[in-house]
Design a protein that fits this description.
Elements: H1 3-25, E1 35-40, H2 72-78, H3 92-102, H4 113-121, H5 136-146, H6 171-185, E2 193-197, H7 208-217, E3 221-224, H8 229-235, H9 244-252, H10 257-260, H11 262-274, E4 284-287, H12 292-296, H13 308-318, E5 323-327, H14 329-332, E6 339-342, H15 345-349, E7 352-355, H16 363-366, E8 379-381, E9 392-395, H17 404-414, E10 418-422, E11 426-432, E12 436-443, E13 447-452, E14 459-464, E15 469-473, E16 476-480, H18 504-514, E17 520-524, E18 527-533, E19 539-542, E20 548-557, E21 562-565
Parallel strand pairs: 1-5, 2-3, 2-4, 4-5, 7-8, 7-21, 9-10
Antiparallel strand pairs: 1-11, 6-8, 10-13, 11-12, 12-15, 13-14, 14-20, 15-16, 17-18, 18-20, 19-20
Helix pairs in contact: 2-3, 2-5, 8-9
């Protein structure tokens, strides 16, 4: 090649590279333009200072459980009127007098959570403590006011550390790795940038250190996206960032976060002043666990209207520029059909489903549940969650909490086409195009996919263990990636009889994967749940984690569930 030709070739290459740089910087779709969502079932046990049970050996870090001080200054913070503005809350004067009576002189020894609980719960001269009549949110408010900063020898806030190499079980790490890999596919050669949303936590600042450390250890640039219900009120419809601290009192029910996390509070204040209502320049957004209703309030107003953050996220996700992940509540909130917001399995099989906001946790103890709703009532929100799991209801901690029948009932009363139920330490990865959807499993176990049949309550179900992929394409559903010979071992567990026992339906599915025979019938309260093979269609395989995958199966429950409107 002559020098002239070489110069022209290099110039053309340079022009091409320059043309791609802005495209890469803003996060482009992966080849094929799939909208990708990774839904984790919770309990992603990763070794850290605050999760020592997940470690092979104890970590020597200084950051441990929160500590509290029951003193005059803490009582003054706990008596802030903003914390007690909710209707039905104990009277502020009563709370202030009660807490003041617990202060012993100038004693200011730090207390751990158990010691603080014992002091707060102690009877007063034969009368029950006000603590016994508080909801979970009100108790959290008191604890937040009494919490003390954890500071190292250098005067800086102690941060939670993560140690991936010391982690006992690798399922949770596999899920986080898969999310980072998906983000990296959108980042070209650069490290993927990940935004972490902690709005579902009772204290949105508490999980930040853990997730930033975990994703950084996996090779990503991870940063907190400080959006929550308080930030949403400060930003929309008008910017009122000076009131952000007070909104944490009224919207989140927590006090003094600027004392405990001064760096994060400054970061949140700076974000509020600079935010344009868009999405950060990232390749992935990950939602942490907690309460999906609390998380939903960060993105959707009281009239079910999405705010600019959610609109920007939906557009980027649909275009394939951003992968979305979430664990526990962070996965459940992605529901595109109705969103499960509360309720036990026992309440579900009784057949009463409420179209209502969830009752406040602890309302039973406080005798302040909404009329017609007990604390365990099954509640659904028909408008759904963030809507990124299109046409589906998402549930988590699935087999471990025997939630299969809860999801079945929710799909029955709402008419949802799909249901995703994810086991702990695991995730379902969904890739969606306009007319095609692919679902596979990641992690320690797997998850269920339910598809509703028109008419009746029968469902077609698959238990997906890692190693096969469910493809939903133009109205057909098929498994891909299964070899000719898939020898499933005989399960050690006996045939389950109680459908409400943890893992019962997963054990039944494993039995049918080994040998398709008669359908397995299990009791579910005073009803019957049935799981069986479909002649000529059911296939089985051994997942990469050694568990059996199987499907399609026929799942039904003898039930008369119906949706009720509860004010």
């Amino acid at each position: 090649m002559t020098c002239v030709r070489l110069h022209r070739a290099l110039s053309a290459l340079l022009v091409l590279l320059l043309a791609t740089l802005p495209r890469i910087a803003r996060g482009d779709p992966v080849p094929g333009g799939a909208a990708e969502t990774i839904l984790a079932g919770g309990a992603l046990a990763v070794c850290s200072d605050l999760a020592q049970r997940a470690c092979r050996a104890s970590l020597p870090g200084e950051r441990r459980v929160p500590m509290y001080r029951l003193d005059r200054i803490g009582v003054e913070r706990a008596a802030d009127p903003g914390l007690w503005a909710a209707s039905g809350a104990p009277a502020l004067t009563e709370v202030a007098a009660w807490l003041a009576g617990l202060v012993v002189g100038d004693r200011d020894d730090p207390l751990d959570a158990a010691a603080l609980e014992a002091r707060l719960a102690a009877d007063r001269g034969g009368s029950p403590s006000p603590w016994s009549r508080m909801t979970d949110a009100e108790r959290s408010a008191v604890r937040s006011a009494l919490e003390i900063p954890r500071v190292g020898a250098n005067g800086e806030r102690l941060r939670e550390r993560v140690d991936l190499m010391q982690t006992r079980e690798r399922g949770g790490i596999a899920v986080l790795e898969a999310f980072v890999t998906a983000a990296r596919e959108r980042a070209a050669a650069a490290p993927p940038r990940i935004a972490i949303v902690t709005a579902s936590a009772s204290d949105p600042m508490e999980p930040v250190d853990f997730y930033e450390a975990a994703f950084t250890a996996l090779g990503a640039e991870a940063h907190w996206w400080p959006v929550d219900a308080a930030m949403a009120r400060a930003r929309f419809p008008e910017r009122d960032c000076a009131a952000l601290d007070s909104y944490r009192l009224t919207e989140l029910g927590i006090a003094g976060r600027e004392r405990i996390y001064p760096d994060l509070a400054s970061q949140a204040a700076a974000f509020c002043r600079a935010d344009d209502g868009g999405l950060p320049e990232v390749h992935g957004v990950f939602f942490t666990g907690g309460d999906q209703w609390r998380l939903r309030r960060a993105f959707i107003d009281a009239d079910d209207a999405p705010n600019p953050w959610l609109l920007a996220l939906r557009e980027a996700h649909a275009a394939g520029r951003v992968v979305v992940g979430g664990t526990s509540a962070g996965a459940a909130v992605q529901s595109g059909a109705a969103m499960l917001s509360n309720g036990s399995v026992a309440a579900a099989i009784e057949g009463r489903v409420a179209n209502a906001a969830p009752p406040e946790p602890g309302c039973g103890r406080a005798a302040r549940c909404p009329p017609g709703l007990g604390e365990d009532a099954l509640t659904l929100w028909p408008a759904g969650g963030l809507g990124l799991a299109r046409g589906a209801i998402v549930d988590t901690h699935f087999s471990e909490r025997a939630r299969e029948l809860r999801l079945l009932v929710a799909m029955s009363v709402t008419g949802a086409f799909l249901g995703y139920g994810v086991d702990e330490g695991s995730a379902l990865r969904i890739r969606e195009w306009s007319d095609r959807r692919e679902v596979d499993a990641i992690g320690a176990r797997g998850g269920w996919v339910f598809a509703r049949r028109a008419g009746g309550e029968a469902l077609v179900a698959w238990y997906l263990a890692p190693g096969a992929r469910l493809v939903i394409d133009a109205g057909t559903m098929r498994l891909e990636g299964i070899g000719d010979e898939q020898r499933v071992r005989r399960p050690r567990a006996r045939i389950p009889h109680d459908a409400l026992a943890p893992g019962a339906l997963r054990d039944a599915a494993a039995r049918l994967a080994w040998r398709c025979g008669r359908a397995i019938r299990m009791t579910a309260g005073d009803r019957v749940a049935t799981l069986g093979c479909i002649d000529g269609a059911t296939r089985a395989w051994v997942g990469r984690n050694g568990l059996a995958g199987v499907g399609p199966l026929r799942l039904s429950l003898s039930s008369d569930a119906a949706m009720e409107n509860v004010p």
